[in-house]
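Hi support team,

I submitted a single chain yesterday and got back a structure, but I'm not sure I'm reading the token output correctly. Could someone confirm the output below corresponds to the sequence I sent? I've pasted both exactly as they appear in my results page.

Thanks,
R.
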Amino acid sequence: MSSASPFRRSVPELSSNRGAQRLQSLLVGSAQFAGFWSAVALPFAMLALVASGSAAQRAPLFVALLIANVVALRIGHGYNQD
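Hi R., thanks for writing in. Yes, this is the structure output for that exact sequence:
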């Protein structure tokens, strides 16, 4: 019979789990950072299109920027709320 308990985690599992959590935290934080600052910067590009009068001529670009801004707002919503 084995004396190993099925309810105990071994040390390598804990350290790999901690590493995975740290990696996830880093990736989520980076995505939120990029999303937040993209949501801040994209309206200036949209404003430039409107101010130059080319928003109607480049409607697909304007719509793509608008969609990108909404996505960036959603991703960056939780940035730096600790």
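A quick pointer for reading it: The helical segments are 11-52, 59-75. Let us know if anything else looks off.

Best,
Support desk
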